[in-house]
Design goal:
two-stranded parallel ribbon, mainly alpha, 10% strand, 9 helices, 281 residues, two-stranded antiparallel sheet, 4 strands
Length: 281
């Protein structure tokens, strides 16, 4: 097989993997935009009570994305804040943005699976072992980071910012719905990306790309990079949101450096001599 045939074979494999990922993500995205979840109570006779349950129902208007938007406004925004639909299509765009983020979070395990299946044949044995070891933690950390940002850190940030509005004696605030959704989703997604940092650091050390001592040596640059990252992903200019996202990022950096250093020590430590069996000889 010539070089051109190998390249075409690789491109065909990439195309096949991308199509499979696209089908799964499109199915999730379509469900979020064209179905709603209706809540019912299912009676359980042997328990003597009912349990909550939700079933899908076709509805392109009050869909799952719209339900999540209502949940976001009730959960994240403090009292006295009014959202305005400034643009004609803002209501459609916010549903699409919410649907894309949720699709990415739900579909991330499938994306990781397809990427790993594509890379495994070209990897050495130790690299395949590392991929299996970090694949599940990386996916879990992304989901946990995004969920923590969505459920706790983003609402905390909104409330903290609006405390300053109240402290200045200003009247109730109005906010464009597009600005609100963009800020909330980017901020939550940023925490999911930050959650990947310790896995990234550990994997580079395991592969021999970066020594553990280098992570410790360049910690000042890492702190500066965390502040710059926080400044880029936060659309406001208060500096408070930048610190809220940069602080856990710095902590995760040092956590990843610690586990990288621990693995190197374990690798370089001499093997323990075998224990003598009692009564031998």
């Amino acid at each position: 097989m010539g070089d051109l045939d190998r390249i075409l074979s690789v491109l065909q494999e990439v195309r096949r993997r991308v199509v499979r990922v696209g089908i799964v993500l499109a199915a999730i995205f379509g469900f979020l935009l064209f179905f709603q979840l209706r809540a019912i109570a299912l009676p359980v006779p042997f328990l003597g009570r009912s349990i909550p349950f939700a079933y899908p129902w076709p509805d392109p208007f009050l869909n799952v994305a719209a339900q999540l938007f209502r949940l976001m406004t009730a959960w994240m925004l403090p009292p006295g804040v009014t959202l305005l639909n400034v643009g004609v299509g803002d209501s459609i765009l916010i549903q699409m943005e919410i649907g894309l983020l949720v699709t990415l979070v739900i579909g991330m395990p499938w994306i990781v699976h397809e990427a790993g299946a594509f890379l495994v044949p070209a990897l050495r044995r130790n690299e395949r072992l590392l991929l299996r070891q970090v694949g599940i933690p990386a996916t879990a950390l992304f989901a946990i980071g995004t969920a923590a940002g969505f459920v706790w850190l983003t609402p905390f940030t909104f409330r903290l910012l609006f405390f300053y509005v109240q402290a200045d004696g200003l009247s109730s605030m109005t906010m464009g719905v597009q600005d609100f959704v963009t800020f909330a989703l980017l901020y939550s997604l940023a925490f999911g990306v930050v959650g990947e940092l310790p896995v990234f650091i550990y994997a580079l050390t395991r592969l021999g790309v970066v020594r553990a001592a280098s992570w410790q040596k360049h910690w000042r640059g890492a702190v500066l990079a965390a502040l710059i990252f926080g400044m880029i992903v936060t659309p406001d200019n208060s500096g408070i949101t930048m610190l809220i996202i940069a602080t856990p990022m710095i902590g995760l950096y040092f956590g990843g450096a610690y586990f990288a250093r621990r693995w190197e020590r374990h690798r370089d430590s001499p093997p323990s001599p075998p224990r003598a069996v009692a009564g031998a000889g």
